[in-house]
Design a protein that fits this description.
By secondary structure, the protein is mostly helical. It has one domain (about 5-140). About 65% of the residues lie in helices and about 0% in strands. It has a two-stranded antiparallel sheet with strand order 1-2. A hairpin with a 2-residue loop joins strand 1 and strand 2 (about 135). Helix 3 packs antiparallel against helix 4 and helix 4 (about 65-90) runs antiparallel to helix 6. The longest helix is centred in the middle third of the chain and has 27 residues, at about 65-90. It is elongated and about 55 Å long. The mean pLDDT is about 80.
Amino acid sequence: MFNLKIEFYLKLIFTISLISIISAYFIEYFIGHQPCNLCLIQRIPYGLSLILISLNYFFKKNEIFIILLLIMIFTFSLIISLYHFGIEQGFFEESAVCGLKNSAEIISKDELLKQLQQKTISCKDVTFRIFGLSLTSINIFISFLLTILLMKIFVSYEKNK
């Protein structure tokens, strides 16, 4: 590693997570590309990392625990992204997660009929690309890098404290 303090790396991860969340909402609400259910799930690790890193500044004594949680969170993000990429490429079939809507909103048969008539976004359809890459493939890259970075931080924790 470059012998920088852990605080610098956590700020970097916080910034990457914040940019990722803002970009996802910008693409959805301002550009108009609707996400599938797996795309929505892939946002969760970034939101959790923002919360955990913010908490770290209040509870410094649990920093190593937060780093371990972040490793697990971004490993989960990597696995979900790889699965989603596999669906996009046709390696895997779409799971039930891809077609689910919020069942709490369905209170009558009329509501159920309305939801069945709405167009759902398929997990295998790529609706938005940046430089020819789907957002899922970009998320694989980011999640992999953040997982490796966090593992290096964990291994060299005492030295870079």
